[in-house]
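Q: Convert this sequence to structure tokens.
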Amino acid sequence: MPEQDDYEREFDIKWADNAEHKEPSARARMLAARWKENPPRPQPFRADPEHVGRRRSSWVSTTVVFGTVAAIIVLVGYVNFRAQY
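A:
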């Protein structure tokens, strides 16, 4: 009997998916009602250059990473050197 229930459920899903008219979601209805009274302003695809934060150069970031790694290597070497004597 569970197999027949699964078949009937699948049939209902197929029937619903093939419907000619699909009701919009609650969010879509809410936005449509809101935009009917107060339409949204057009938004550019990309942000304006003046509002975009200035990014550091990739060379600066690379230098900071390699500098930190080099400092750790030197520190570990110094600690090992002092431990031997």
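Residues 60-85 form one domain.
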